[in-house]
Amino acid sequence: MGIKYYKPTSAGRRGGSVSDFAECTEPRVNAPEKSLLKPLPKKGGRNHHGIVTSRFRGGGHKQRYRVIDFKRKQDGVEAVVLSVEYDPCRSARIALIQYSNDTKTKAYILSPDGLKAGDKVMSGETSEPKIGNCMPLSKVPLGMTIHNVELTPGKGGQICRSAGCSAVLGNRDKGQALITLPSGEVRRVSDKCRATIGSVSNPDHMNISLGKAGRKRWMGRKPHNRGTSQNPVDHPMGGGEGRTAGGRDPCSPRGVLAKGGKTRKKRKASNKAIVRRRPAGAHQTHNG
């Protein structure tokens, strides 16, 4: 896998780059499994009342959602990887697997880095700790790289699901497991929670440059207007003659401060599961 750079035939091509899709089984064929597709209607950032709840959303290329199996509940049944495919709804690649039982069920899973067509994967307590296998944290060797980790047993993987992400299993004690997340946070979860061995595929996703504003519109993202460029009736930082510095601390259109404030609820039930907080950002480490 890697990144492809085009010749600078235009201003957008000059700064843009794309994935070469080398890890996909058939990179030039977009033929997903029809039985695992669902329609994905556009909402434009609006709720059921038609009110904009997420700004700067709308448009974008038409997509169909691939149903991903985050739970991996068919224990002890070996499955063969039929293909590794591109998914327009997520940054990671997905793998189409078919179970070897009588039903010959097909399912999509998150493709780990290094998984390819023809490989075999399995889930359950009896599976081996190799790439693509899913098992409870109580059976995973310490120090192993994992992804698609559950927070509640049986609910399905919730964290470490985007491209290139992985967590590390640190320790186990009294039915609890300590995992180190990509942010540096150390979290305690039940050792009955399941995780998949390996890291998520497509680690070069973070190095791709869009190159032009149009590619962002294809993704359903509209231009993001600065608060200082708006009118006072639309934003607290708007108004003034000419360009201004804002006149106050950066905030949202509703007046919520944008920098330095904590966004996590103080009484959130899962706070007790966090053993070590993630390190502060660079803007919070300096004095003053």
TrEMBL record:
GO terms for cellular component: large ribosomal subunit. Residues 40-49, 213-225, 261-280 have a biased composition (Basic residues). Keywords: Ribonucleoprotein, Ribosomal protein, RNA-binding, rRNA-binding. It comes from Limnoglobus roseus. Pfam families: Ribosomal_L2_C (PF03947), Ribosomal_L2_N (PF00181). The gene is rplB. Part of the 50S ribosomal subunit. Forms a bridge to the 30S subunit in the 70S ribosome. Residues 129-257 form the Large ribosomal subunit protein uL2 C-terminal domain. InterPro entries: NA-bd_OB-fold, Rib_uL2_dom2, Ribosomal_uL2, Ribosomal_uL2_bac/org-type, Ribosomal_uL2_C, Ribosomal_uL2_CS, Ribosomal_uL2_dom3, Ribosomal_uL2_RNA-bd_dom. The keyword Ribosomal protein applies. Residues 35-56, 204-288 are annotated as: Disordered. SMART domains: Ribosomal_L2, Ribosomal_L2_C. Belongs to the universal ribosomal protein uL2 family. Signal peptide: none annotated. It comes from the Bacteria. GO terms for molecular function: rRNA binding; structural constituent of ribosome; transferase activity. This is Large ribosomal subunit protein uL2. Residues 45-123 form the Large ribosomal subunit protein uL2 RNA-binding domain.
